[in-house]
Specification:
Keywords: Hydrolase, Kinase, Transcription, Transcription regulation, Transferase
Number of helices: 21
Largest sheet: 6 strands, antiparallel
InterPro entries: ANTAR, Bact_Sigma-Reg, CheY-like_superfamily, GAF, GAF-like_dom_sf, PAS-assoc_C, PAS-like_dom_sf, PAS_fold_3
Domain ANTAR: 22-83
Radius of gyration: 47 Å
Strand order of the largest sheet: 3-2-1-6-5-4
Helix content: 25-40%
Domain PAC: 457-509
CATH topology of the domain at 537-760: Phosphatase 2c, domain 1
Protein name: SpoIIE family protein phosphatase
CATH class of the domain at 537-760: Alpha Beta
Number of strands: 27
Length: 761
């Protein structure tokens, strides 16, 4: 029995053989194209050698073979080197920097020159020049005069994808569109749409403008399956610049050839009522833009004063006839020529204008740029400026002709009255009918002054409109007299001051509220200051206790609203130990002052238990954490035993005390102790110091040393140096030392300051 699957298997095999044949023919065709391109490059190199060596084609071919044999290179590579040495274009410059790119670029050039259209150019680029760069697709965009883009050629994209990108209208934001508008190269810019691009596309791509004769004629777009590394991208950019220059020459030139549109454009320039110039790019020997040639001078400009000062003539150059163009106008002409995007500017400084200011217009027409300017009319400008100022100031004018009774209103006055421009205006003598009744006396006095006494007058009143809206207006008017003192007209203006009125009302209310708030704040500050002074009055003089000489200085802030929370305390405990403490509650005002009282009194009470300084700081921290209004503060607490002369101390985020022992001084160690009120489970360490006769201990708050232009460490070092110098004077009393420190420490924050000096006798 026959196998039913045999025909299907044979068909599949035949199909496979056919596909293999097609693939083989495709490879052979590609090889043939490459071989043809290589032969074209070799023939071009032969032509260069014929011209350089003045020999025949046979001798040139022999010379090329000899060079290939000596250098160990292929004839195609030698041909590329010969062409690069003879040419001075972007391909040769790129080949000098990247020798490995010479053959692909020259081969691509040969293919481009032989290509029949831009589509064939794109295929040639993808076949010869882009594979060494790792690129897998290319698109050649042609720029339209309106900023649009057309897909002139592509390779590596599916036909249906290319079909949907045949035309990109102006204003659509794409990578190629941005390169065209900005005349710059763009690498893989965000999520901008483009041909062959999908959302979350990991591939890399670059768009580069293609320039010909100073004009951006299109954009070259090259794509990679993955973003190239930075070094590879830099190497590829040089080669793509050369390819962009090649592609620029393949795009279709304007119909009719260069200059075919000049007669029509010259006729347009002559028909314009304003002066105009037709300009065309003038290129240098390397193909770069050197200047703009004046192709045509309009009829309106011939014989004008500008032509006497600036000798424009057909065939001359713009910068030679008008050097001032380099100050800004030239750059605009260059951009319009390059991109085709029109340029318009009002009141642009222009020396060509009779007034020095003109409205300027630049448009590109084929290869030409049309420059048109209009002298700015100063009267029209002032009238427009006045109208603008009246609109912003909500000012409206009027005139009443005394002879004919004709009334003229500006459009703004109709809007103030709530009337349509076609409705009859309200005569000035009937103003009382439209005013609020309470303003009748004011309006009547105004009308008598203007209409009867015929003098200037002004008045503010409330206007009642037909739509129920009330406006606060100010009106001014004056009579205009003619020959013989005869009244000719009454002219004046209205101003809408409604917003000003309500602003003044709001300001008055705010002013009253502010005065009340200031009074309350002053009372609170005064109460805080009295409380502070009641607890810690500024102290002068020295006290003695158990072999200690103790002096205290308290300096409150100069400004009452900066009343702070600094405190000090010196008290003998039931255990005969002496409690020494200073502290500083964060903030200012009543809250800081009351917090200072709470912590100071709490520390006094807790010290009566006989606990050590570290335990006292822990308890005081719990007090700060569990108040109704939590606070933070710094403090130093010390217990001095007169029998042993040992000071046991602890700190809570505060600066350590200073011990002065001749001839030196030092800070006590910075033992562990976070500030009060930061967190409830804070731990504090204790320190001990054995004091001797004539030792001096200084405890202080940061208001003594703080400066805005110095860090705290610098201020501490300066205080230590000053205190040490004061201690070495010997004869100076403890009071003198403290006063000297208060005077010369140089703090500038106007904060409260507490300073305790303890000297052993």
């Amino acid at each position: 029995m026959d196998d039913p699957t045999a025909p299907a298997g044979e068909a599949a095999a035949d199909l496979g053989r056919l596909a293999a044949t097609v693939e083989r023919l495709r490879r052979e065709l590609a090889d043939a194209r490459r071989a043809a391109d290589d032969r074209a490059l070799v023939e071009l190199a032969k032509g260069v050698l014929v011209g350089r060596l003045r020999c025949g084609p046979a001798q040139a071919a022999e010379q090329l073979t000899t060079l290939a044999g000596r250098s160990g290179l292929s004839p195609v590579e030698v041909a590329a080197d010969v062409v690069n040495a003879a040419a001075y274009d972007r391909v040769s410059v790129t080949a000098q920097a990247q020798p490995e790119a010479a053959v692909p670029l020259r081969a691509a050039e040969s293919a481009v020159l032989d290509a029949g259209d831009t589509q064939a150019v794109a295929r040639s680029l993808l076949e010869h020049a882009l594979p060494p760069l790792g690129a897998t697709a290319v698109a050649v965009w042609a720029a339209g005069p309106d900023g649009s883009l057309s897909l002139a050629g592509h390779a590596g994209f599916a036909p249906e994808e290319a079909g949907s990108w045949r035309h990109v209208p102006p204003g659509v934001d794409t990578m190629a569109g941005r390169s065209l508008a900005g005349r710059r190269t763009i690498w893989h810019s965000g999520d901008l749409p483009s041909i062959g691009r999908r959302r979350a596309d990991p591939g890399g791509r670059v768009t580069m403008p293609m320039t010909r004769g100073g004009r951006v004629v299109g954009v070259l777009e090259v794509c990679w399956p993955y973003p190239p590394a930075a070094a590879d991208a830099s190497r590829a950019e040089r080669q793509i610049e050369a390819l962009a220059e090649l592609c620029a020459h393949t795009l279709t030139a304007p119909p009719g050839g260069p200059g075919s549109d000049l007669p029509e454009l010259a006729g347009l320039a002559d028909a314009l009522p304003d002066p105009a110039l037709v300009l065309r790019a003038s290129m240098d020997a390397r193909g770069g833009l050197a200047d703009f040639e004046v192709r045509h001078v309009s009829r309106r400009l011939r014989g004008a004063p500008a032509l006497e000062a600036y000798p424009f003539k057909a065939g001359g150059l713009l910068l030679e006839a008008f050097p001032q163009a380099a100050g800004g106008l030239y750059g605009h002409v260059e951009r319009v020529h390059a991109t085709g995007e029109p340029f318009r500017s009002e009141r642009m400084p222009l020396a060509l204008s009779m007034t020095g200011v003109a409205d300027v217009s630049l448009t590109r027409h084929g290869e030409n740029v049309l420059l048109v300017w209009r002298d700015h009319d100063e009267d029209a400008r002032l009238a427009g400026l006045l109208e603008h100022a009246q609109r912003l100031g909500r000012i409206a004018g009027f005139e009443e002709n005394a002879a004919t009774g004709e009334i003229t209103w500006t459009a703004q006055l109709y809007a103030l009255y709530g009337l349509s421009p076609g409705e009859p205006p309200v005569p000035l003598e009937r103003l009382r009918e439209h005013a609020h009744p309470d303003d009748g006396v004011t309006v009547g006095r105004f009308l008598r002054t203007v209409l009867h006494h015929r003098r200037f007058a002004a008045a503010a009143f409330r206007l009642r409109r037909a739509d129920g809206v009330a406006r606060h207006l100010r009106v001014v008017a004056e009579p205009v007299f003619g020959p013989g003192g005869r009244l000719m007209a009454v002219r004046g203006a209205y101003q809408d001051i409604s917003s000003q009125h309500w602003t003044e009302v709001a300001l008055a209310v705010t002013r009253d509220q502010l005065a009340h708030s200031e009074q309350e704040s002053a009372e609170r500050n005064l109460l805080a200051l009295r409380l502070q002074h009641a607890i810690m009055p500024p102290s002068h003089g020295t006290t003695r206790s158990d072999g200690l000489r103790i002096a205290v200085r308290y300096r409150p802030a100069q400004k009452d609203h900066l009343v702070g929370g600094d405190w000090y305390d010196v008290v003998t405990l039931p255990s005969r130990q002496i409690l020494l403490s200073v502290g500083d509650v964060a903030g200012h005002g009543m809250e800081a002052a009351t917090g200072m009282v709470v912590l100071r009194n709490a520390l006094r009470g807790l010290a009566a238990t006989g606990a050590g300084p570290a335990r006292l700081m822990s308890w005081l921290n719990l007090v700060a954490c569990h108040l109704a209004d939590p606070m933070t503060a710094t403090a130093v607490c010390g217990l001095y035993d007169p029998t042993t002369r040992v000071l046991t101390w602890a700190r809570a985020g505060h600066l350590p005390p200073i011990l002065l022992r001749e001839p030196d001084g030092r800070e006590l160690p910075m033992i562990k102790g976070p500030l009060l009120g930061a967190f409830p489970d804070a731990a504090y360490e204790e320190g001990q110091v054995q004091l001797r006769a004539d030792d001096t201990l200084l405890l202080y708050t940061d208001g003594l040393i703080e400066r805005r232009d110095r860090n705290l460490r610098h201020a501490q070092d300066r205080l230590l140096a000053m205190a040490t110098r004061g201690a070495t004077r010997g004869a100076a009393s403890l009071d003198d030392r403290l006063d000297d420190l208060l005077i010369h420490c140089g703090s500038d924050t106007d904060d409260d300051t507490c300073l305790i000096g303890v000297q052993l006798t």
